[in-house]
Structures are given as C-alpha cells and as structure tokens.
Design goal:
The complex is a heterodimer of chains A (about 350) and B (about 525).
Chain A (H helix, E strand, L loop, with lengths): L2 H10 L5 H17 L7 E5 L3 H15 L3 E5 L2 H11 L7 E4 L2 H9 L3 E2 L3 H4 L14 E12 L25 E3 L6 H12 L1 H14 E3 L3 H10 L4 E5 H11 L7 E3 L10 E9 L5 H11 L2 H9 L6 E2 L30 H9 L4
Parallel strand pairs in A: 1-2, 1-3, 6-7, 6-8
Antiparallel strand pairs in A: 3-10, 4-10, 5-8, 5-9, 5-10, 5-11
Helix pairs in contact in A: 4-5, 7-8, 7-13
Chain B lengths: L5 H5 L3 H7 L1 H20 L1 H8 L2 H34 L5 H9 L6 H11 L6 H26 L2 H9 L4 H30 L2 H5 L5 H10 L5 H24 L25 H27 L14 H35 L6 H9 L6 H14 L8 H26 L2 H9 L4 H29 L3 H6 L7 H9 L4 H26 L1 H8 L2
The chains are: A alpha/beta (about 350), B mainly alpha (about 525).
Pfam family, one (chain B): BPD_transp_1
Main location (chain B): membrane
Family (chain B): Belongs to the binding-protein-dependent transport system permease family.
C-alpha cells in the first residue's frame, strides 16, 4: 500500500478542526444510546422469520402495553447463545422454528415450565412432554420440483432414495439451514447413525449445496436444479411473491409415513433465568391465542399450520389430512447435536 | 537553565509506551482467544477438524478464486493505469476518478446488485465478477502511482534504439511496475480472504462464510476456531508478504529533483476501443450496482419475503444508528491510536516503537468474523457487563480499523513541527499543556482525516456489526444483509441507496481533500 504518498497528502491537507469535535460528540451519542434501558421490556430471542415476529410483537404490545425487544438469529445459534450466556442471559422468551433447539435448552435446565392453561390450548404431543416448552405452529418437509426438468412419476418415494447415484446433480439441499437438522435427527431416529451417515455422504455427492431453504426453492423454481428439500412454507412464500404464472415449480410429498414427510414444530419457551416471567407467560399465551393463530394463518408471511384446534390453515397449504407424517414425535428428534456432528462428518457443514 | 538533552527525545515516558502498546494488544487479543479455543479442544480434535472434506473444498474455492481474481484485477488495473497515466486517452481525469470510485461501493452491496439481476450468477462466477470489479482499484492505485514515479529516460533510450511503443511498454515499462502489480495482487488476495458478505450473498463458500455457518449451527468453539486459524495463517501470510514487498525498491533514477513526465503514447486507431473498454469497466463496476439499486427502488417491497417492515422510519433509524456508530468508533479509535501515533512520530528510534507499530498493523489480517467471535467468547466468560453493549461493538471497530487511524495520525504528527513543542516545553509548559495547545491543534486536520477514514469503514462494515450489534440495533448494512439473504431485493434497495450515497459522499470529500491515496488506505482493510 502506498502509505508514503498517503502521508504526504494528509500532511498538506486542511480539514476544519471542528470535524474532530463532531466525532467526539458522536462518540458520546453512541455511548448514550446503550444506557437507555431502564423501562421493563420483554426480551425475545427469536429464530422465527423476522416479519412474523414483527407482526406478533406489535399485536402483543398493542394488547398488553408490554414492549418487546427482539434479538434474531438462526435456531441453533440462538440456542447455543443462551447455553453460553447461562443464568446471565438477558432473554425472557425463546421462540424458534424447530423443537430440537428447545429440547437442548430443556436438557440443560434453562427453561421454566409453561403455564398449564397455555399448554392445554394445543395438542399435548406438539409440546414438550414435561411441559417446559410450547408448540405454536408446524410445517412439513417436502420436495420442491420443477416439471420442466423432471416428470412427477420420476420423483422419489423415499427421502433415502436421494442418496442414490441416479440423483447426482438433480437435488438441492441447504445443510446449514436450521430446518435441515431435524430431518437428519429424524433419519437417525428411524435408521440409526451409520445409515444416516451413509445417506448424508450420498447427498454430499449428489446435491447442489445452498445456504438456506429460500435459495433452494428459488433455484428449483428458476430451473437451476430439478428438485430440492425444503420446508413447505418457503414454496408458499415464493409463490405469493412471484405469482402463479412465474411459479412453475410444485411441491411433492414422499410416500405416506416416510421420514421425508417429517413435521417440524415451531415452539417457544420461558427462560428459567427470566426476570419477567409473568410477561413472558403472557407472551406464550398470546402466541396460541385465537387472535394470534388466526392472524398467522391469514397472513402472507408465515404459511405454517396453526396448532390451536379450530383455526384453519392458509388455503394455499395442502390440508393436514394429506400430509401423512412419520410417527416421530418432537422428543425423538434429539437436540441437534448428533445431527450436526454427522453433517460435519459427511463434509456438508 | 533549561536544556533538552538528546536522550530525552529517544526515551519516551513509560506511560506513553504502555498506552502505545494498547493497539497491538487489541490485535493480539482475538488471535490469542482463537488459539486458546483451539488449544482447549486438544490436538486430536483440532486435527480432525482441520483434516476434513469441508476444509479441502474451502481451500480449493479460496485458492482458485484468489488466483483468478488476482490475474483479472492485475490485468484490468494495470491496463487502466497505463491508459490514464501514459496515453492520450481523452478526458483522462474523468477516467482516473471512475477507476477508483468502485472502492466506495461496499463489495456486499455490489454482490447484492449482481445476484439480484440473476440468481444464476451464484457461486464461483458471481464471486469472481464481484471481486474483480470491486478490487481492480486496489491494483490500479499502486500501479498508477508507480507509473507517475517512473523515470522516462529509460523509455527514451529504448525508443531511440528502435523499440516500437508496444515493445517499449512490454520490455521497459511493465517490468518496472512489477512490485506495484504484485503489491496490488496481494491486497486483492487479503481482501478476498477477509470478505464475508459478498460471498455469503453469492452462496460461495469460503472460510469466512463457513465460520459464520459454524456459528449459526451452534458450533462456535473448536469448529469455528479451527477454520479461523487456517484463515488467520493465510491473512497474516499476505500481510508479511506485503510488508516485505513494501521495503524500498531502488529505481535507476538517482536524486528526486524535478521530475519529467514521460511523453504520452498516442493510441491512434486504438483510441475508440480503449474508450469503449474503459467505459465498459466503469459501467460494470459502478453502473451495475447503482442502476440495480435504482431499479429495485421502483419495485414494491414484497410482503412474502421481506424480513422486516420497510418504512421511512426504519430507514431513518438505521441511517442514524449507522452514523452514530461511525462517529463513536471514529472517536474511540482515535483516542486509542493517539499514544502509538505520538510514539511512532516522535520516538521513531526507540527500540519498542517499530514492534508496537507492526503489531497494530496486523489488524489488517484479522478478519471481522474472527474478532467478533473472540469478543463474544471473552465477554460472556469474563466481562458480562460489556456483552451485547454498544461499547463492545465500538471496540471491535477500533480493532479492525486502527491501521487507518494510525497512518493518517502519524503522518499529521510528522508534519507538525516538533520544534514548536520543544519551544513550548522550554518556556515551561507541561506535557499536557503542550499536547493540548501545540500538538493537537497542529495535527487536527490529519486527525480529521483519520476520523473520516474510520467513519467510512465503519458505515460499510457488515460482519462484526452482524454479530455484535446490541439487541434492537439495526444499521444500513445489517438491513441490506437481512433483506438480501432472504431474496427481498426491493426491500433492501432504500438501505443500499442510502449506504452508497453516504459512502460515495464521504469518499468524494476525502479524495478531494487528500487525493486518491486516501481512498487507497480505506481499501486496505
């Protein structure tokens, strides 16, 4: 670098000394913003899509007068952050898209029990068995496919088929997306570690790797790759954005009860270390209230299935009865650690 | 009787030396934490983490991209420097500005522009396009400077002995430009190593993107440390190579004197192709990002994939946070850099001055993601009060951009006459009074420039901001990132427009006052 030339230029120049003063004032201003935290606010660590959380927190604050500040990140990142923060975590509520992250926190005794009245609102199988976290919404793993590149009849009946040599270059995955981990966890539960590792190695050979499900579904839609493993709501969101005319891609389910049809549960929990447990419980109750669940179902930003009975899902989604998920409960998925280790061993992350 | 013994100027006060060690310590800190993470994991685990398929993929990605980008950047940068400095290209001063202006467009914003035009650009091709157009100025600037410093006598001799212009350029001019070209190529390499946002948006996997992925997958200990150490070795290697290159190179010319400029080569029939080629380069490196942002500004923000509500208020809040953080970081960085700048300008021969300076320079080889993860680890474990605080983010900025402040502050101090300080001392003023009344006022313009450089760098910084911003703080950069990584290109456009405007305005002011070399320093991080 030509620092010599730079030095000469700087020496000769003239900038008003007030500039330095301005920067000093700026330093004070920036420092000042950090200290404005006296009022009681609920701190939410969220791995849900920010627009969904924005909608929910706004409605919650309007209803209760309790302001919510949101820290966003990927599910495993948020969970790991809370683990590291331990008892000092500033979080009151954790709201994530996949249950294994909550399982991890619960195993480390970082969650407080959810109020019974709130738990009673949703089916018991969709929340923690011990009542330490609450199921809020759910969605399904599906295969997005592009009819220009593949015939419907050629789609694989089973998730495990995608590791076969015939699928080389025809499948897209996002192994570093938080939504992929539960699928690996389900595979481990169904087939064991050795077979899951072999399957992942096959995927590594066959798959085009993307960073997240959004990119996978976009790649399938524009015809870069024939199929892609996604959660169903990414396709619905893409279709809403592009319109039916520009959405040639479709989604397909695997054979009934196949691991590939796994349902992922979005859930929330109250931190054991929270200093605002009442407000936190109120927030959880709000998440499964009729109002919130109806708003979520009606919105064009979420496209998950509401867990509160009687609230109909968005009409763009396939009816619940057609999903045929495998008999794998949230607790069977583990806490993501084993799944992540296998992904690493296979060279996918 | 008051006298100034020569020894007094050679041995600085102990307090100054201690404070002068702070910048170096700030650089060593994240490196030490990363190494400690690795050591905690144990040799066997580290070996397993380093010796795995992913690392091989990343090495291949990084090496192929670096080679391809360096070759393209050297070709384009040298060609444009030759055209501007040594030919009769029309409107050369305009081209000179256009050749450096891409530095004011952050690489991740350019990446956003390209990937929003066609997602087919994802991967190696897109990453190459973005890096070449973003980093060609890093070669152009040193090569143009070297061209200005060449002695035309050698060329005259070659021409007199019958060389054609082409042959003369090839045999006489280009060989003399080799150090500048190589230095530029190393800068391109270093920038590729530490870049995160541009590659993440292009879905191109490099060490920085996979360190981030490891963090997001809940692995931020050994896994991230293993990748970070490989990356650090690469970056520090680049720094060392660049430092070796920067040692004085002896040109044939003796004595400075008044320099004669070489006679410009006549382009002749190549005039039009040269203009068209240059226009294409400017169009691709500047026109594409700017026009794409303008295009997306006219589109509606799509509900379905827009992460957060886009509103004028959100835009204003993000712009204000960005400016506040920029000003705060500039203030903090200058304060932390001042003692070392004084030490290096006033006690150049003191035995510790050089090592402390070199230590601080290493900051250029420590990627933002490594600093951010190390600070998170350190504060959670040892200083919970600092965790998630604005101060911590400002500290990270200070670590990243200390070299900018140092180069400008040191130069300013060297320019202000130390005899005035000595006169003040001899008249009885204490060191505080001398600093306040003599040193600082004289150096103020250069300090202003230092602050402006840090400010610009902070406003366009993405990685550390993403990881360390206090809860609820959104900057222009994090907004663009959030929207673009979910393909909400229209929603990102207003933020990108404000960011580019801010960065362009600041660069223009800096370049007008301090010349293109100021931009050059800005690009060094």
């Amino acid at each position: 670098m030509n620092y010599f030339a730079l030095s000469r230029r700087f020496g000769r120049s003239l900038v008003s000394p007030t500039l330095v003063g301005a920067f000093a004032v700026g330093a004070l201003l920036a420092g000042g913003t950090a200290s404005a935290r006296a009022k009681t606010v609920l701190t939410l660590y969220s791995a849900q899509h920010p627009q969904v959380v924005g909608m929910l927190t706004k409605a919650f604050t309007a209803k209760t007068g309790i302001p919510v500040r949101v820290h966003s990140g990927e599910g495993p990142e948020i969970a790991n952050q809370i683990v590291r923060e331990g008892k000092r975590s500033p979080a009151d509520v954790v709201f994530v898209e996949n249950s294994p992250e909550l399982t991890l926190l619960d195993q480390l005794h970082l969650l407080a029990p959810v109020a019974q009245a709130t738990l009673a609102v949703v089916p018991a199988t969709d929340s923690a068995a011990n009542g330490d976290w609450l199921g809020v919404l759910e969605r399904q793993n599906v295969l997005a496919w592009n009819p220009k590149l593949i015939r419907q009849a050629a789609l694989p009946p089973h998730l495990r088929d995608l590791a076969l040599p015939a699928w080389r270059g025809k499948i897209a995955i996002a192994p570093s997306d938080a939504d992929f981990l539960p699928l690996v966890g389900a595979m481990i539960h169904a087939k064991g570690k050795a077979k899951t590792l072999a399957w992942l190695r096959g995927l590594k050979r066959n798959a085009k790797i993307y960073q997240d499900d959004e990119s996978v579904v976009a790649a399938v839609n524009r015809g870069s790759v024939a199929t892609g493993i996604i959660n169903n709501y990414y396709w619905a969101r893409l279709r809403t954005e592009m319109g039916p005319a520009r959405t040639p891609s479709r989604i397909a389910h695997f054979a009934p009860q196949d691991v590939g049809n796994l349902i992922n549960v979005s859930g929330a929990g109250v931190l054991a270390s929270s200093k605002h447990k009442d407000a936190a419980q109120q927030f959880l109750a709000f998440l499964v209230s009729t109002v919130a669940q109806r708003d979520l179902a009606a919105s064009t930003v979420d496209y998950e299935y509401p867990l509160r009975p009687g609230v109909a899902p968005n009409p763009l989604l396939d009816p619940m009865a057609s999903l045929h998920p495998p008999a794998i409960a949230p607790v069977d998925l583990g806490n993501d650690r084993a799944a992540a280790a296998l992904l690493q061993q296979a060279g996918l992350i | 009787m008051t006298k100034i013994p020569p020894q007094a100027t050679r041995r600085p006060p102990v307090g100054l030396v201690l404070l002068g060690a702070v910048p170096a310590a700030l650089v060593i800190l994240p490196i030490a934490i990363t190494v400690a993470d690795a050591v905690t994991a144990g040799a066997a685990r580290m070996l397993a983490l380093v010796w795995r398929p992913l690392v091989g993929d990343l090495l291949i990605n990084t090496v192929t991209l670096t080679l391809a980008a360096a070759i393209c950047c050297v070709g384009l940068g040298t060609a444009s420097a030759l055209l501007v400095e040594r030919t009769d290209l029309p409107a050369r001063s305009v081209w000179a500005v256009l050749a450096t202006a891409p530095l004011a467009v952050p690489a991740f914003v350019a990446s956003y522009a390209w990937v929003s035009i066609s997602p087919a650009l994802e991967g190696f091709g897109g990453a190459l396009v973005v890096t070449v157009f973003a980093y060609t100025p890093l070669v152009y600037l040193p090569v143009a400077a070297a061209l200005r410093g060449l002695d035309p006598a050698l060329e005259d001799a070659a021409r007199a002995l019958g060389d054609t212009p082409w042959r003369c350029v090839r045999r006489v001019v280009l060989p003399q430009l080799r150090p500048a070209m190589l230095g530029g190529a190393l800068l391109v390499t270093l920038n590729i190593m530490v870049e995160f946002g541009a590659f993440a948006l292009m879905r191109f996997r490099t060490f920085t993107t996979e360190i981030y992925a490891a963090y997001r997958s809940g692995f931020d200990g050994a896994e991230a440390a293993a990748l970070a150490i490989i990356l650090l070795l690469f970056c520090l290697g680049c720094i060392a190579a660049e430092a070796l290159l920067r040692r004085p190179v002896h040109y044939a010319r003796i004595g400075r004197g008044t320099q004669r400029r070489g006679v410009p080569y006549a382009l002749g029939v190549w005039r039009l192709p040269a203009v068209l080629g240059f226009a294409a380069l400017a169009g691709l490196s500047l026109g594409v990002p700017i026009l794409t942002v303008l295009y997306w500004l006219t589109r509606h923000g799509a509900d379905a994939i827009t992460p957060a509500e886009a509103s004028p208020l959100a835009l204003l809040t993000a712009a204000i946070s960005t400016i506040e953080l920029g000003l705060g970081a500039a203030g903090l960085t200058l304060i932390l850099a001042l003692p070392l700048a004084v030490l290096s300008a006033r006690w150049q021969r003191f035995s510790l001055t050089m090592p402390l300076e070199r230590g601080a320079w290493l900051a250029q080889g420590v990627p933002g993601i490594v600093i951010a993860l190390a600070l998170i680890t350190a504060t959670i474990a040892a200083v919970p009060a600092l965790y998630q605080s604005t101060l911590l983010l400002l500290l990270a900025y200070a670590m990243l951009f200390m070299p900018f402040a140092l180069v400008a502050m040191r130069a300013a101090l060297l320019q202000s006459d130390r005899r005035l300080e000595e006169a003040a001392k001899s008249l009885g003023a204490g060191w505080r009074r001398v600093l306040w009344r003599i040193t600082l006022p004289l150096a103020a313009p250069g300090f202003g420039a230092a602050a402006a450089l840090v400010f610009m760098a902070v406003t366009t910084e993405l990685t550390a901001t993403l990881l360390l911003a206090p809860i609820g703080t959104e900057t222009l950069a994090t907004r663009i990132w959030g929207d673009t990584s979910t393909l909400a290109f229209a929603a990102a456009a207003p933020y990108a427009a404000v960011l580019i405007t801010l960065s362009m305005a600041a660069s223009w002011l800096l370049a007008r006052r301090f010349g293109m070399a100021a931009l050059h320093a800005q690009a060094g991080g």
